[in-house]
Amino acid sequence: MVTSDPLNQSAGPEKARRLYVYNGGFVTQRRVRRILALSGYAVSLGLPKEGDLIGIWGNSPTAHRGLSVAAKRNTPVVRVEDAFLRSLFPGRAGGPPLGLLIDHKGAHFDPACPSDLEEILTTHPLDDTALLNRARGAMARMAEAHLTKYTAFDDCAAVPSPGYVLVIDQTRGDASVTASGADRNRFLEMLFVAQDEHPGARILIKTHPETVQGFRAGYFTDADCNDRVEIFSDPVSPWTLMEGAIAVYTVSSGLGFEAILAGHKPRVFGQPFYAGWGLSADEFPVQRRQRSLTRAQLFAGAMMLYPKWYDPYRDRLCHLETAIEVLAADTRAWRADHQGWVASGMRMWKRKPLQHVFGRHKAMVFEDDPGPARALGRPWMVWAGKAQVGHGDAVRVEDGFLRSRGLGAELVPPLSLVTDDLGIYYDPTQPSRLEKLIQSRRTLRPDQVLRAERLVTALTRDNLSKYNLGGALPDLPKGPRVLVVGQVEDDASIRTGAGDIATNHALLQAARDAHPDATLIYKPHPDVEAGLRSGAFDASQIADVVANRSDITALLGVIDTLWTMTSLAGFEALLRGVNVTTTGAPFYAGWGLTNDRGDVPPRRREDISLPGLVHATLIDYPRYFDPVTRLPCPVEVVVERLATGDVPHPGWSNRMLSKVQGLLASRAHLWR
């Protein structure tokens, strides 16, 4: 019996069973061995004994070895395949798989006998509301992030004008094609039927990624084209391609499954796992498949109950939603970085961590002169605070909102960075990409609300903030408490967004005037406390308590109201249900969540929910870097690292340089 939770289910009837293999890939591919081990299999070499298993890779050219030994020794066979979401590139191009399909009954692509997947789709109730809601959310997330089996394509790449018929090619000798009894004649028949059923329509033959990369030939050639038929091999998003199609034809391609998820009813000329459930028009029906399924049910069985998904950050099996975010983070980084960046305005100490984040696929080039930088023909970025005339077409880069354990001014590398192609989040004088993202999150899907709420819970539970410096909480009188957060007075967010109140003294005085009877608490900015930036003054003349070196998250838990010019502390206060008054125009002002006394741009005149603001600000906008695996990661991984303290400390050179700059604080322009 298949359970509803693959994390609590061994792929076989017992755990830690020896799995004898005769394919070198099982031994050489570390990720494959690890997923098998976590699923209860010990990869072994030699000859099996009673109670052991034999593992083969699908219908690979080496599968006959294992099948031969299994027949001679009467040993059960386990078939292993890549899961339906795999990696950036095909396996032949390298890169570990995101998950495995481990099947004791057959191969999911071979209709000759039922597989574990077919049994799930045939016998599992697939009626659990929570499971189906998760399935709908995961389908939407895949479409939103343009995820498919191989994701190394530009999701913004143009596709032909809508109205075409999509005919999907596959690689010659593909196991799912031969298992369906198909050959080139079947593909030609499919192409003929597509033309016959859609007279006058354009026919696009979509080439397989492995054919494009020269690994294996496809079934169609240029000779099959005519004035209506063309081969389309551009690396584009299948989701975008499906949007413009009026019909989809396939033999057994995984894109046929994705066509169903995208709302099509594909015409199927083979017998793939997704045929026979009432969601496709089947030319060669599998008679034993008589059940009608919804898209969510098919997806839940094939993507959530059947595969073993792997979480590389935590080295464990995981649910599909986690696997999706693993691939989404890796894919987002590749799509942004694979052309290579040229970067301007980056201080020397920042270059190594920036290279780790943005130079993983192609090394960054650092060039401060706009002319030569632009002449390199690469995407161009500039540190936002260093942007000048001549940087107009460069992407702005800044630290993210969950930055590190320690200050940037103390040369602690960031765990998150934001890139903005429109402006930068702290400058309200022009639109930013964050503004657009916030506006796009005016409505959220249920899964997005849940993710944002869980993130807020984790941040508040673990007392996380931008720098996570800790510190004691001062003794505070009872009664109404107002926290005023100081800032660096020459900070770019003050210069561009503070408005009439642009000094810490003026902010504190305004808060006192508005709350004459409250306990007024002043919290200096950590960089100012460290003597690294400007903004120090004697706050004790106005404030009742000066909370030097106090934990900002602890303070947020004991106050009623927060006043700020543009500080991120205002956003962190919103997460904790604190009333926030802004005198400037920070990114979180103007959305109906704050008391705005500053000049907030009119373009922000719409109400956004707190989950919507959180989703845009902490999930959509930044890019995150896992300091342990050194991989791109989703926000939840950085939250865990910060909460557990699993963040490597800066090297000795950074620490020494930080001490030197502390002694030279009056010359801060040298490193800022």
Question: What would your notes on this structure say?
Answer:
By secondary structure, this protein is an alpha/beta fold. It is built from 24 helices and 26 strands. The strands form 4 sheets. Strands 2-1-3-4-5-12-13 form a 7-stranded mixed sheet.
- Determine the mean pLDDT: 92
Major sheet summary line:
7 strands, mixed
Distance between the termini: 62 Å
Radius of gyration: 29 Å
Structural class: alpha/beta
Question: Which residues sit in consecutive blocks of at least 5 with pLDDT less than 50?
Answer: 9-14
Envelope shape: elongated
Helix content: 25-40%
Number of helices: 24
Question: Could you tell me the number of beta strands?
Answer: 26
- Work out the strand percent: 15-25%
Strand order across the largest sheet: 2-1-3-4-5-12-13
